[in-house]
Amino acid sequence: MSELPDRQAINALFAGNYADPFSLLGMHQTAQGLEVRALLPDASDVWVIETNTGRKCAQLTCLDSRGFFCGVIPRRKNRFGYQLAVNWHGQQNLIDDAYRFGPLLEEMDAWLLGEGTHLRPYETLGAHGTTIDGVHGTRFAVWAPNARRVSVVGEFNFWDGRRHPMRFRRELGVWELFIPGAVNGQLYKFEIVDNSGQMRIKADPFAFEAQMRPQTASMICGLPPKTEMQPRRKAANGFDQPISIYEVHLGSWRRHTDNNFWLSYKELAEQLIPYVKEMGFTHIELMPINEHPFDGSWGYQPLGMYAPTRRFGTRDEFRHFIAAAHDAGINVLLDWVPGHFPSDDFGLAKFDGTELYEHSDPREGFHQDWNTLIYNFGRREVSNYLSGNALYWMERFGIDGLRVDAVASMIYRDYSRAEGEWVPNHFGGRENLEAISFLRHTNRILGRAAPGSVTVAEESTDYPGVTRPSEDGGLGFWFKWNLGWMHDTLDYMKLDPVHRRYHHQLMTFGMLYNYTENFVLPLSHDEVVHGKRSILDRMPGDAWQKFANLRAYYGWMWGFPGKKLQFMGNEFAQGREWNHDTSLDWHLLEGEDNWHNGVHRLVRDLNHTYRHFAPLHQLDFDGQGFEWLVVDDHENSVFVFVRRDREGNEIIVVSNFTPVARPHYRFGVNQRGGWREIMNTDQHDYHGSDTRNHGVVHTDEIESHGRPQSLSLTLPPLATLWLVRESD
């Protein structure tokens, strides 16, 4: 039987140092009878009202002028539902007492959270509107096992941490509280007295919406409804499908011309989605949209993993943007950053006074490259927080896949570290076994709970089996960026054509390892910043040669095995490096038709042609889908290969990477008959010299390159051709 609290307990409660408020506040059975105690700062008088009858049961006595009230309910032995009629500054308010409600976490949720195996921890932790015993409000739950006290503070309680201290579920390290009357749209945070007695004000790690930066409060809002992944979207992610990805930074794709302000999610749905559809891209990849404090991080230093950034509008407006993409037949990939997070005070860093989400040892927990903190993947609650987040975007927003950032930095403990700056694993090796386990686990979860969705690894080393099943020792990703291909081919293209003959292998080497992974060929944002120059500006020669080189390179890229990715601006040959603070240079497409318009039309036609012809995509990851016809013509810097589909239909791709036209260039082919150009990057429409092979070119019974029949073509200068066999 609980008794009247002593002065020390009351003082601790007002000081915000009382860790077990439910033992003190609410309704209790005592030797004197049912007793109600309430902490109501600045109240003048308080009555207990029986909920069922609306009858006044008792007036509470003010035991402490700071606002502690207590009173015995006469002639009542059994607990009952009640409200408090509180007089504040002459105005009476009828409120429900947060401390009359029992524990909130369901037994199964508690079990799964404790194990770190909860498939959807976001359904339990965070802030959720609910009704308990007919009372509408919000239940809050937060993991902070080492805190001395946690309170919810917000617009509903004057941001006063004394008013709503939480119940501690010691077995889980979770604090919980149901606050009647707290409703969607209200702002809140957690006020934490940490393990050393310091006060910390933290945003909710599971907040579904947040304030616009530089403000940092979380916002109460309901979980969005689950979305079903339709069969068309599942099919569009298939290994045998044409996948051409348009990578976008929403804050700088296009801006308002009058004030340089961002487009909203609504405006982006109206402008970006139709543009992507017209250009023939199959997927949009959004650079990170998780809430982040610093614009200059481009979203790669996220703190609100469950909240889309408010920079462009509300959470629901972002959902409508995704739906607009799906209505247009476009899948959406989200750039996802589970590898590190910033150390801002309101975020995850030292959340309860300890290194809770991060490692305590900076050799494990600090990213030297980005001055950020590294998640402790070995802590089950942390890995559960992240894996649950991956599923959240699929189920609640309809995201079709995740591009996972900086995988190499996660899986190697010595990543970008000198000797003595890293801690080996328990076997003495350099692999981060906990991170590897986390990635495998997350990919398995998505495969089972969100079938049809995909993950794409940005992994910059030769770690084996990134896109192989975890059961076979792989990481379980669906795709991997082919950064080796990207570096090699760009190194080749930046050479003066006269020197390319000495570096022929840069264009052929990729085929030696092409089938070790399921590759995406990326020309991403990383290649047009930090002094690397734009893709156009890396091309050698005068303006004509620069654009011709770029067009030939794009023709090669779209013909080569692997899915495609282009960063925004590459599609019209933006000349300057990308700047996240301004719009792309759309003015380059204005006025008289020019070279930029030519590249723009080329990329559109490459996409549509690539999607139309199955040999260009159906067997990307099958050796039967590719064959070299000419691989060793170093002197002329000419390459010829075949792409093939399951039925044996072929597309021939020919590239001439010198500014010299080559008439009567003969090479052997597999199939006799007539061949027709379906793509020529030198044609007039693209502002080339319009050197063409018009009509149908027929094979000759002349042996060449080990084949009994051959074609003789005119190869345009600095150009790529695609040819399809005419049906007999």
From TrEMBL:
It holds the Pfam family CBM_48. It comes from Pantoea trifolii. InterPro entries: A-amylase/branching_C, Branching_enzy, GH, GH13_cat_dom, GlgB, GlgB_N, GlgB_N_E_set_prok, Glyco_hydro_13_N. HAMAP family: GlgB. Residues 247-596 form the Glycosyl hydrolase family 13 catalytic domain. The gene is glgB. It is an enzyme of class 2 (transferase). PANTHER family: 1,4-ALPHA-GLUCAN-BRANCHING ENZYME. SMART domains: Aamy (SM00642). One of its GO terms (molecular function) is 1,4-alpha-glucan branching enzyme activity. Monomer. This is 1,4-alpha-glucan branching enzyme GlgB. The active site is at D405 (nucleophile), E458 (proton donor). It catalyses: Transfers a segment of a (1->4)-alpha-D-glucan chain to a primary hydroxy group in a similar glucan chain. Keywords: Carbohydrate metabolism, Glycogen biosynthesis, Glycogen metabolism, Glycosyltransferase, Transferase. Signal peptide: none annotated. Its EC number is 2.4.1.18. Belongs to the glycosyl hydrolase 13 family. GlgB subfamily. Pathway: Glycan biosynthesis; glycogen biosynthesis. Catalyzes the formation of the alpha-1,6-glucosidic linkages in glycogen by scission of a 1,4-alpha-linked oligosaccharide from growing alpha-1,4-glucan chains and the subsequent attachment of the oligosaccharide to the alpha-1,6 position.
